[in-house]
Amino acid sequence: MEIKMTQEHANQTLLTTPLHALHIEVGAKMVPFAGYDMPVQYPLGVKKEHLHTREAAGLFDVSHMGQLRLHGANAAQALESLVPVDIIDLPAGKQRYAFFTNREGGIMDDLMVANLGDHLFVVVNAACKAQDIAHLQAHLPQGVELEVIDDRALLALQGPKAAEVLARLQPQVMAMHFMDIQLMDIDGAQCIVSRSGYTGEDGYEISVPAEQAEALARKLTAYEEVEWIGLGARDSLRLECGLCLYGHDLDTSTTPVEASLLWAISKVRRAEGERAGGFPGADIILGQIESKDVARKRVGLVGLTKAPVREGTELFDADGQHIGVVTSGTAGPTAGKPVSMAYIRADLSTIGTEIFADVRGKMLPMVVEKMPFVAQRYYRG
C-alpha cells in the first residue's frame, strides 16, 4: 500500500478513531486514509508486522469502517433487494460477505452482513460509508429503520494465536467458527464479536463501546503474542490471501463476474426461482454468468523476478499488446515472491499464462496463478 502525503492531505481536517491518542503514544506513523488519520505502521515496521501476524497475533484498529444496524421485520428482505446475496435465510449468529451493485452491474461497495437475531449488523468500507448510508436510506421501505453506529470502535485481532489470546478474556470465543458472530462481554465491555477478518488468518473482529476501546486494546497488546499492526501490513496480508480492496480491485465499473466473485453470489439469487435476480444490475450480472462472456477478469499474478509489481503497472502480452493493469501489488513477505492482482483480457486469464509488466521501462515476466497466494487459515471447526 503506497500512501503519499500531499499538500491537499495536509490541509484536510481528518477524522480520528477512539484509539488515535494511543497510536501516537506507541509511536505509530500516521497518514490520511479514507478521511481519517490512521496508523500506516508502528516502530516494528511493515514487513515485521506482516510476518508477526502470520506467526502470532496482530491487533488492528479498523474503527474507521462504518457500523450500521437495520431494524424491522422486513430488514433482511429490504437489504436483499440491494445485494445479489441470500440475506433472508442468513441464520441468527452468522455473517456473510456481500456487495451493493448499481444498475450497470458494477460494485458500489463490499460489506459484511450479520444476523444478530432482532436486527442486522452491517459493516461497510470507510471511504464508501456516506454513500452507502445514503443508498440504504433511499431504498429502505417504511418499517425498516437504519441506525448509524457512531459510539463504537472496531478492533481486529488476527493470527494463529488470536483465539488463545482472546480466550484469556472470554473463553466463549474458542467455541466460535469462521463467520460466527455473537454479543458477549469481554473484560467488562459489551462487544459484538465475529470470528472473521481481512488477513486470511484465523481471528476476530470486535465492535466495542468507544469509551472502553482503549482499555481493551491496552490489555490485548500487553500479551507478548500481540503487536499493533498498521494499514501497510493489513494491505499486504489481505493481498497475499486473495482478498479485494474496494476502490482498487473493485469499483463501480467492475461487475462481480469480471471480479471473479461468482462464489459470493448466492445460488438462490441466480437460480430460476422467485428470489432470483431482483437486485440492481441483475440482468447484466446474470447475463454474464450465463454467457461466460466478459472482456476482462481479475487474476492473481506472480513475478518471475524479485521486483514488486505495484498498483497501476500496465501489462502486455508477448507481442507487446496492452492487455490490462495491476490493481494491487506487494513484495509478498510470506509468499516469498512478488504477488499482484490485476484485470487482464479474459482470453489470457488461464492459470500458467505468461505476461509482462512494464516496470520503469523494463518488461518483467509474470505468470497468472491461482489465488490465494498464501493459504487461508480460517477456523471452520
Could you explain the architecture of this structure?
With 381 residues, the protein is an alpha+beta fold. Among the domains are: 134 residues, 2-Layer Sandwich (Gyrase A, domain 2); 80 residues, Elongation Factor Tu (Ef-tu), domain 3 (Beta Barrel), CATH 2.40.30. 21% of the residues lie in helices and 31% in strands. The protein has 10 helices and 19 strands. The strands form 4 sheets. The protein has a 6-stranded mixed beta sheet. The protein has a 6-stranded antiparallel beta barrel with strand order 14-17-16-15-18-19. Strands 5-6-7-4-8 form a 5-stranded antiparallel beta sheet, with helices on one face. A hairpin with a 5-residue loop joins strand 5 and strand 6. The two termini are 33 Å apart. The N terminus is likely disordered.
Which characteristics define this entry?
single chain; 381 residues; alpha+beta; Gyrase A, domain 2; Elongation Factor Tu (Ef-tu), domain 3; six-stranded mixed beta sheet; six-stranded antiparallel β-barrel; 10 helices; 19 strands; 31% strand; transferase; aminomethyltransferase activity; GcvT/YgfZ/DmdA; EC 2.1.2.10
What's the total count of β strands?
A: 19
Secondary-structure element string: HHEEHEEHEEEHEEHEEEHEHHHEEEEEE
* Biggest sheet overview: 6 strands, mixed
Summed up, the helix count is 10
Percent of residues in helices: 10-25%
CATH topology of the domain at 19-61 and 151-241: Gyrase A, domain 2
List low-pLDDT spans.
2-9
Query: Any idea what the shape is?
Result: globular
Round the mean pLDDT to the nearest integer and report it: 96
Look at the helices and sheets and give the structural class.
Answer: alpha+beta
CATH class of the domain at 19-61 and 151-241: Alpha Beta
The CATH superfamily of the domain at 19-61 and 151-241 is known as Probable tRNA modification gtpase trme, domain 1
Distance from first to last alpha carbon:
33 Å
User: Gyration radius, to the nearest Å?
Assistant: 21 Å
The neighbouring-strand order within the major sheet is 10-11-12-9-3-13
Q: How big a fraction of the residues is strand? A: 25-35%
Name the CATH architecture of the domain at 19-61 and 151-241: 2-Layer Sandwich
